[in-house]
Write a structure and sequence with these properties.
- Helices cover 30% and strands 34% of the residues.
- The protein is α+β, with helices and mostly antiparallel strands.
- It has one domain: Thiol Ester Dehydrase, Chain A.
- The strands form 2 sheets. The protein has a 5-stranded antiparallel β-sheet. The protein has a two-stranded parallel sheet with strand order 1-7.
- The chain is globular and about 45 Å long.
- The termini are far apart.
Length: 172
């Protein structure tokens, strides 16, 4: 049996999406005059997908959103700034971290408004999972995110197993 050659590890910066902006308009606001959370999540998913696709060298699909933490609201007159990067890659999947900040139109102090972790799976033309390159963290911050991503993955897998066990018990 022939084994696939391991893919060369890639640095975080090779796939990161940096400083992507979205200008908030009145139709982006809810009845509380803050930006719809779903709008921010949709933009975040798009930018995170770009980071995943770049790292994997092809199409990736969103498998899960591990956590979305809304830290502060964005409002009319704000510009949203998105930064996304792969935190860790495994066999066919990877975690992408996203940070969203807001600033007033024209610039000024930035406010951290959202952090999230998304899991993507690289897929081939048939929609089947395919291997992804390992990630090569280079800075202390990247190494810290790399280690945290493994912990989040272990917790996700443990949680999925617990749910499976509980659901199996209900069917008896």
């Amino acid at each position: 049996m022939q084994h696939a050659q391991p893919l060369d590890a890639r640095p975080v910066g090779a796939s990161a999406v940096r400083e992507q902006v979205y200008m908030v308009f009145p139709n982006d606001l809810n009845s509380n005059d803050t930006v719809f959370g779903g709008l921010i999540m949709a933009q975040m998913d798009r930018f995170a997908a770009v980071a995943a696709d770049r790292h994997a060298g092809g199409v990736c699909v969103t498998a899960s959103v591990d956590a979305v933490h809304f830290i502060a609201p964005a409002k009319g007159g704000d510009v949203l700034i998105f930064n996304c990067a792969v935190n860790r890659a495994w066999q066919t999947s990877m975690e992408v971290g996203c940070k969203v900040e807001a600033e007033k139109i024209g610039g000024g102090e930035r406010r951290h408004i959202l952090s999230a972790y998304l899991t993507f799976v690289a897929v081939d033309r048939d929609g089947k999972p395919r291997p992804v390159p390992a990630l090569m963290p280079e800075t202390d911050v990247e190494r810290h995110r790399y280690e945290e991503a493994q912990l989040r993955r272990e917790l996700r897998l443990r949680h999925a197993e617990e749910l499976k066990r509980l659901r199996a018990g209900r069917r008896s």
